Amino acid sequence: MPELLDSAIDEELRTFFTEARIRAGAYGAHYAALWESIEQQSSGGKRVRPRLVWSAYRGFGGADRAMATRVALAFELLHTAFLIHDDLIDRDTVRRGAPNVAGRFAARALEHGADERASAVWAETAAVLAGDLALSRAHREIAMLPIPAERREALLDILDRAVFISAAGELADVTGSLRGTTPALEAVLSTLEQKTAVYSFEAPLAAGAVLAGAGPEIVSALCRFGRLVGVAFQITDDVLGVFGDPAITGKSASADLREGKRTALIAHAATTAAWPRIAERLGDPALDEDAAAELRAALLECGAREAATALAEEHVTLARYELDSAELPAELRVELHEFAQRAMERVR
Amino acid sequence: MPELLDSAIDEELRTFFTEARIRAGAYGAHYAALWESIEQQSSGGKRVRPRLVWSAYRGFGGADRAMATRVALAFELLHTAFLIHDDLIDRDTVRRGAPNVAGRFAARALEHGADERASAVWAETAAVLAGDLALSRAHREIAMLPIPAERREALLDILDRAVFISAAGELADVTGSLRGTTPALEAVLSTLEQKTAVYSFEAPLAAGAVLAGAGPEIVSALCRFGRLVGVAFQITDDVLGVFGDPAITGKSASADLREGKRTALIAHAATTAAWPRIAERLGDPALDEDAAAELRAALLECGAREAATALAEEHVTLARYELDSAELPAELRVELHEFAQRAMERVR
What we know:
Two copies of one chain form a homodimer.
Chain A: H1 2-25, H2 29-42, H3 48-59, H4 65-90, E1 94-95, E2 98-99, H5 101-111, H6 116-143, H7 149-179, H8 185-211, H9 216-243, H10 246-249, H11 255-259, H12 264-269, H13 275-281, H14 289-301, H15 304-325, H16 330-345
């Protein structure tokens, strides 16, 4: 069933971007290329958000696949917008191993004879605008749903909350990491929840459920489940970012260490005697592979890996408890239990 | 009457931002400060867009002031979002003589002990997020209007067109100015139309008219009027940017020359024998006041000022022709004629 949804989402994205590129072509080749870069940015993901929309919608008896696909598309485009603006903030030019919007436009500028400085401005402009356009489309997709006002407004509230809280999380993440102080676990977890769990897990589940007509109490339970499981997934991602196999995770196992990313792993390490030794090298952009391996060994030895994994497990346990306490349709309950379980299986 | 509307808009903005700041406070003082900086960015403008929404709405017999205020608020917040992201792209930290969102957050970061690099990242993050939040609220304001679906969807289409075309114009403006070639008049005018006239003049007029129930033909005429008068205003602004009294325009009369801004003035100068002499100094960031005065004299002498002013007048004439050809309510026609006239009176 997820495969069927994936193809529906891919088809919807393809149709939308084809129309957008044609429409953009009237305003010049660069603008069409900008839309193409948004399309490329939106492809290659795992479609977590569309799947959650679809699971919840179908789970509550929703049968209008086209309608669910539009809501799923909205959350996929919201995700695309956030990735693009997150990369802009982090000054990254690569995403999932390929040039991102900024990377593509920097290259395009050089091809058109721009110098380095001009190329940087092109790239930044493209990233600002691409994110704005994807964000606008996410809003429009929900706003134009031909469903009763009350239900559409509930979906707009979910979207509003997702945008509001994600921005809070992004700001907290950036200001926190620049302050240079030791990350406290509580701050790390609330940032994970705000920056990612709400818009990626809570909101898509809530939207699917509301679209199918689920009541407020059960939607609240799904929201709590989404936040908990979302935090578990992020903790696991961060553990894999340091200890995972780059061939499987698709990212360097030293990148997070070089960046000094503030994770649950690091917050735990900061409470141990090993911290001064770890803090000394963490966040060093010049960290070589040997030093990264030493850091990794220190994080293992001081119990940080074990503590982070246990923390993820606790979140999954609490998430699963929400599933059992709520009056969920049986099939959806099974599906979400399996989904929660996957947060753990990846790291154990 | 415009004064009454101004106070209604100010009141609506105040209420909205007060709620947002309280809501944001739950996510930390920095996030509340971010909302405060959006509020500051949205104050001090001339409220051109709200006034146009209101003129068109009232002109077509609209009587629900609260509803019109919400639409006006949406366009004011769209404008705020575009200003913030435009400043981000231009790397400006000052707007209307005061620190903008980035400027405020750079200072805030330094107060919190951040170094120069960290302060720049804070500032950029704040500008990205502030624009996203204002843009999202503009969408939400229209999407939540309690009006019949057909009318709300027509308003959403107007908003969608405004966002789509403004992004095209912003991209064309940046890529054009970086290419370093001589600006052609046609490209300058279409960029003015796309980047500013559509979202600032066409869309607010169309939105007010549609909200009041005006028919598609008359809305199209208003759109044409809006684009023409919008281009006239921009040409005039650019002339004033070079020849105006800084005490009245509120901006330095050398800034556009130092920046090498591609205006109708410059596009005309590029077709005259004076161009090599002008091109030599134009866009020099180190241009002093004497050199700026010389450039100004050269632009006057080669006929660029006269040509740009005549071009603005032509646009006003065409705009007024649209007013006389359309079946407009008499009072609205008079009001819009006066509005068009103002585009000229500022520069003559």
